[in-house]
Structures are given as C-alpha cells and as structure tokens.
Amino acid sequence: MKNQMKVFGALVIASLMFVVSCDKDTDPADRDVFVGTYEGTITFNDSERTITDEDGRVTVTKVGDSYSFIFGSGIPDITGVRFEQGDDNVYVGIGEGFTGIRITASSLNIAVTNGQGTWTADCSR
C-alpha cells in the first residue's frame, strides 16, 4: 500500500508538470522543463530529398538550457540547441548552425542550414 501511494503521488506530480508545461501561453524560456507543439509549414531538404508539409508539427522540448525540435513528416530532429533572449521576449538560437531559430510562447520560426541539410518552419500554437 505504501509503495502504491508513492507511485500514485509521482504520477500526479508528473501529470501536473506536463499540464503546466503544455499551456499555450507558457513561454518555453520561463520553464526548466517544457513540452509544446507548434503547427504550420515545415520543410527539410538535403542532397537526396525534399520534404514539405503545410500541416506539419514540431514538438519542442526543453530540459534545463537545452532545446530539441522533434519534427513530424519524416524530417530529422534538431537537438542540443541553446538560446539567448532578444528583443520583445523572442529567443534566438545560438551556436554554429542554430542562429536561424526564433521561438516565443506563440510562434516558432526556423531557417537552419548545416552539414545535414536545410530546415524551415513557420509555425504557431
């Protein structure tokens, strides 16, 4: 019974954290843990293929200072991105190849090119 209460308590806490992190008004920068889905047009191209999805989704996760962008539609993910705050509470990706990522509570814009290919996203939530 004691172990069941511990498991139940852990599930309740995890559920609350998930609900708070998914709030559409929540700015990812304001949380140490964040999960949110942005929807809109996403593309990827490399030397072998071009993928375009006008109804695409990008799930953004943040743990600590590291962001990951999990794309749908068979587009490779972008991981390990760090940000700095710009004007109007817009956060801009820093580091080689990531300066073309801008994120707010309501929008995600990506224009990234590196050795793997080129990603674009014009999404909102």
Automatic annotation (TrEMBL):
It comes from the Bacteria. This is Lipocalin-like domain-containing protein. It comes from Parapedobacter koreensis.
